[in-house]
Amino acid sequence: MIKLDSFNKEILQILKNNARIPNTELADKIGLSPSACLRRVQELEASGLIKGYHATFDKELMGIGFIAFVMVGLNEHTKASQESFESAIVSANEVKECHNVTGSCEYMLRVETKDLKAYKLFHTDVLGSLDQVATITTHVVMESVKG
Fold first, then answer.
1. Total structural domains in the chain?
2. Which of 98, 105, 110, 143 sits a CA distance of 20 to 30 A from 136?
């Protein structure tokens, strides 16, 4: 396991906010030489701590006008039921995240669609058509202040 000293923690925080920062600028910000900084970044990547770099898109410009967190309860609490549900959800383009959770339901989904009408189709044609689904509770995102 890689050591997370103050330099590595600083590198991770800066890359989290700006993964495209040039190595020379990153090195300057944390007070290391460019070669030492690059070596640390490469070690963080090789260790698997840094899994990749991602682009962030403007949802509105991409035609995403509706975001919801959807709580899904299954009618059976079996491994087969969970695997069947997960298999169906993986292929649903509207589902951006799927988490198996504890509490009053089994799954929490983050769903993004063009609008409420498109969500209704997803709700009916995808979630509503799965035999494993017993309950669906939708929490509509009104505004995101972080993330």
1. 2
2. 143
Same domain assignment for residues 84 and 20: no
Q: What pTM was estimated for this model as a whole? A: 0.79
DSSP β-ladder status, 133-140 and 66-74: antiparallel
- Of 138, 91, 133, 134, the closest CA to residue 119 belongs to 138
List the domain range (segments joined by +) for residue 118.
Answer: 66-140
Per DSSP, the three-state class of 140 is strand
Sequence-separated (6 or more) residues with CB below 8 Å from residue 82: 74, 100, 106, 132
Whether residues 34 and 70 fall in one domain: no
Contacts of 89 (CB under 8 A, 6+ apart): 95, 98, 107, 109
| Mean pLDDT over each residue of the chain, to the nearest integer | 96
Cβ(109)–Cβ(89) under 8 Å? yes
Give me the mean pLDDT over the 96-103 stretch.
Answer: 97
Does some domain include residue 107? yes
